[in-house]
Amino acid sequence: NPLEVVKTRMQLQGELQAPGSYRRHYRSVFHAFITIGKVDGLAALQKGLAPALIYQFLMNGIRLGTYGLAESGGYLHTAEGSRSPARSAAAGALAGALGAYLGSPIYMVKTHLQAQAASEIAVGHQYKHQGMFQALTQIGQKHGLVGLWRGSLGSLPRVIIGSSTQLCTFSSTKDFITQWEVFPSQSWKVALAAAMVSGIVVVLAMTPFDMASTRLYNQPTDAGGKGLMYRGILDALLQTARTEGIFGMYKGIGASYFRLGPHTILSLFFWDQLRSLYYKYTK
């Protein structure tokens, strides 16, 4: 979670400002840790922990469960029995989109809470939420269900690309390693190596959309709950590219890798091992 806090703030730093025209409160991942700890206090590194945990439970439970059902049902393989990368990517995308959409209100509140900072190191729009339940209640009372799901459609490309890339790369790499007998087919090293490759690929593919999604969720709104800075994720990407350059689209990539790399490796590795145990003792 501390890495998620750092990533969120680095993605909001210098929002729609040309490079060199603003003060950089966070110069690197490690500098951000130190700065937040000194100014906001060590507890600030765990801001948004409750919604972050709930979102991961919802999103990954639905995503991995749905993908697993598609795989066990044989929908990801061709008539010849080989795995179809296109079907794997499509299943991963649909599973990820479903999980992300249902968990969108929780993710939005998580973003708001993690962006909140002392004025001297604040970046992006500052909401004044007191906690997850207060934030959800306030947004719901003020803007209704539309307000709670604001930014949800913009977050879908982030998760669709991330989920399809992650699961397709993981499955394809596993098949490649097994086919070329890099490790014994039943070895835990197969899943571990595939997860490591998947972690690198997913961060590179997902970061621009993750950055844009963070900004969509955190932007200020008018009385009707409509965003005042961006019309959607494409507009957020285009505005960022025009004002901050290509590197602006990859803000927070260091924190993303330190977070998503281990997360991808551990979650996919244990998911694969648990599935293997399940099939071993139920068939």
UniProtKB/TrEMBL annotation:
Membrane topology field: Multi-pass membrane protein
Catalysed transformations (reactions): a dicarboxylate(in) + sulfate(out) = a dicarboxylate(out) + sulfate(in)
Protein's job: Putative antiporter that exchanges dicarboxylates and sulfur oxoanions across the inner membrane of mitochondria.
Keyword Metal-binding annotated: no
UniProt superkingdom: Eukaryota
Solcar repeats (start-end): 1-73, 83-176, 186-277
SUPFAM superfamilies: Mitochondrial carrier (SSF103506)
Presence of the UniProt keyword ATP-binding in the record: no
Keywords: Membrane, Mitochondrion, Mitochondrion inner membrane, Repeat, Transmembrane, Transmembrane helix, Transport
A Gene Ontology term for the protein's cellular component: mitochondrial inner membrane
Name of protein: Solute carrier family 25 member 35
